[in-house]
């Protein structure tokens, strides 16, 4: 989608170092990390949020990509977050899974 920053990252219009890539997904470091490891996993195809994601293949591909990223980085303890909608903290409207690790993470979240 035009003017979507994560589409530009996914289609390599904006050069980034991918931590991981497969047919459907890419993963890269968050620009403003909230933990020593903070990776974003996104589908290459644009879906604004989980509300718009209607393809179970891509849903599976995203979770599979999260697992492959954590395996690749040897992370066993991590938090996966998907903010959906402005009130829930979503700022970039191209669905993304946050993967946070490397420090104690409080629960419940704020
Ligand atoms: P949200 O608040 O939508 O769940 O998360 C958006 C995340 O994207 C934030 O953690 C923010 O730091 C990150 N982000 C925003 N713009 C960019 C960018 O251009 N590059 C990267 N790598 N991360 C970004
Ligand atoms: Zn997009």
Overview of the molecule:
The protein is an alpha+beta fold and 110 residues long. The chain has one domain (5-101): HIT family, subunit A. The protein is built from 2 helices and 5 strands, in the order H-E-E-E-H-E-E. A 5-stranded antiparallel beta sheet has the order 1-2-3-5-4, covered by helices on one side. A hairpin with a 3-residue loop joins strand 1 and strand 2 (25-29). It is globular and about 35 Å long. It starts with a helix and ends in a 9-residue tail after the last strand. The relative contact order is 0.23. The model has no long low-confidence stretch (mean pLDDT 97). The structure holds guanosine-5'-monophosphate (5GP) and zinc ion. Zinc ion (ZN) binds at residues 1, 4, 6-7, 46, 94.
Give a concise summary.
This protein has helices at residues 5-10, 56-72; strands at 18-21, 25-29, 37-43, 79-81, 97-101.
CATH fold category name: HIT family, subunit A
**Estimated radius of gyration:** 13 Å
Strand content: 15-25%
Label the structural class.
alpha+beta
Distance between the termini: 32 Å
The biggest sheet, with number of strands, parallel, antiparallel or mixed sense and barrel status, is: 5 strands, antiparallel
Walk across the major sheet and give the strand order: 1-2-3-5-4
Helix content: 10-25%
The best one-word shape is globular
Mean pLDDT: 97
Order of helices and strands: HEEEHEE
DSSP helix count? Answer: 2
Number of strands: 5
Name the bound molecules: guanosine-5'-monophosphate, zinc ion
- Number of individual domains: 1
Return the CATH class: Alpha Beta
Stretches where pLDDT falls below 50 for ≥5 residues? none
Overall CATH architecture: 2-Layer Sandwich
What is the subunit arrangement here? single chain
């Amino acid at each position: 989608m035009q003017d979507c920053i994560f589409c530009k990252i996914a289609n390599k219009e904006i050069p980034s170092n991918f931590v991981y890539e497969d047919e459907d997904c890419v993963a890269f470091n968050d620009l403003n990390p909230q933990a020593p490891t903070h990776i974003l996993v996104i589908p290459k195809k644009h879906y604004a949020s989980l509300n718009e994601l209607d393809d179970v293949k891509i849903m599976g591909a995203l979770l599979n990509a999260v697992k492959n990223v954590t395996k690749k980085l040897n992370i066993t303890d991590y938090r996966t977050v998907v903010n959906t909608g402005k009130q829930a903290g979503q700022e970039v409207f191209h669905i993304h899974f946050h993967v946070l690790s490397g420090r104690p993470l409080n629960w419940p979240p704020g």
